Amino acid sequence: MTTLQALLRPLLSLGLIPQIAIGIILGILLAIVSPASAQSVALLGQLFVSALMAVAPILVFILVAAAIAGHRQGQPTHIKGVLMLYVIGTLAAALVAVVASFAFPITLTLNVPEAGGNPPGGIAEILSNLLLNAVANPVAALMEANFIAILAWAIGLGLMLRHGSETTRGALNDLSNAISGIVRIVIRFAPLGIFGLVANTLAESGMGALLEYGHLLAVIVGCMLFVALVTNPLIVYWQTRQNPYPLVFTCLRGSAITAFFTRSSAANIPVNMELCKRLKLDPDTYAISIPLGATINMAGAAITISVATLAAANTLGISVDFGTALLLCVVSALAACGVSGVAGGSLLLIPMAASLFGISIDVAMQVVAIGFVISVVQDSTETALNSSTDALFTAAACRAAEAEQVKEPA
Asked: Using an 8 Å Cβ cutoff, are 114 and 366 in contact?
């Protein structure tokens, strides 16, 4: 054991991000050298994602309730600023996707098997489901990771406990700290978990299945990279009037990497909470904005829906004017929060979007099937963009508000 500790000490002394990078490299090498062995380590990835998914609902519930219960009248929070950035970011992503679709028109070969899943019938149905989810049984919401209901009940409980005793609020705060400690332990195992996820994914899927739909994938991923590295930094600069890239790269390193491999915004909530804590942001703000962003901040979904729907229209020779395309994609992206907890949720919105152009459900579901083929990269990149943007915009809004507070006395 002493020898093993001596060998591992240099590795353990590295930061979490270098350890994750090593895990990614080792996972790729294992998948190339021995695919059978790579599939055998899948359990590591499954355990890591399951642990994050298990702790995320109770973490959100307790942190939001504790933050609101402990909030004092007149103490500033920056939720409005974060929400404004979420809306602007989604609209900007939709605009980027529409421009890219018109600049690089995509034609698909629609001879793929029909995809499974029941797409929503319309925006009214999605919004109705969203409202019904908000009033779901709180115990069932925690068990099923229904974050809309978890947020609603946590906010309600927090507001009521603001009138409770100091002892009650102190106990709630202690519980919040205890759960945060468990989260930190889980996150320490991220390098092992991501090693298992990378090895298993490459061993099972490989990259060959992606080549046939390379053009579609290139446009989608290109749009997401443009939003992450150009659009979002411009929004952050507009808010903070400072060089945005140190903050952008910090959020990409601290959030996007784990989100890419877990492919779950919900699972990445604890990671984003820990990142916001390291950035020394206002706990009252990020305790609410991070779980809320995992549900409603859908820049990646806006890109996927926009590009895939316009590709279907172009394949069928349907003429779409720019204004109509932008309006359609923005509405679809905003509606995506209603299916954000479903695997491939953004893909299942494509039939609804396509129906507004008169595209039949049979054709639209074939486009969805193509989406599932490329989802190894598409869904991972989408989640990485969505989740890292939650942390980025929370940090931007907090720092902009703090800068304003510093200027006021002068």
From this structure: yes
Name the nearest CA neighbour of 388 among 233, 242, 237, 196: 233
Residue matched to tokens 């106990």: 171
- The total of other beta-carbon atoms located within 10 Å of residue 210's CB is 18
CB 30 within 8 A of CB 199: yes
Closest CA relative to residue 241, chosen from 111, 127, 363, 400: 400
Whether the predicted model's global pTM rises above the 0.90 cut: no
Between the alpha carbon of residue 352 and those of residues 178, 230, 297, 345, 368, the distances in Å are 43, 30, 20, 12, 11
Q: Is the pLDDT at 179 greater than 80, yes or no?
A: yes
What sections of 13-41 are H helices per DSSP? 16-33, 35-40
Question: Residue 114 — pLDDT band, cuts 50, 70, 90?
Answer: very low
Distance from C-alpha of 278 to C-alpha of 9, rounded to nearest angstrom: 24
Structure tokens at 173: 């705060």
Return d(Cα 295, Cα 398) in angstroms, integer: 20
Choose among 181, 171, 152, 153: nearest CA to 70.
171
**pLDDT value at 4 more than 70:** no
- Helix 123-134 × helix 147-161 angle, to 10°: 40
CA distance 301 to 90: 9
Q: What residues contact 101, with CB distance under 8 A and at least 6 apart? A: 219, 306, 307, 310, 311, 314, 325
Number of Cβ atoms within 10 Å of the Cβ of 105 = 14
Take residue 62 and report the two structure tokens written for it: 């307790």
Measure CA of the first residue to CA of the last residue in the chain; give whole Å: 60
Q: How far apart are CA 361 and CA 363, in angstroms?
A: 6
| Contact status, residue 378 vs residue 159, Cβ threshold 8 Å | no
Euclidean distance between CA atoms 170 and 66, whole angstroms = 9
**Alpha carbon distance 218, 220 (integer Å):** 6
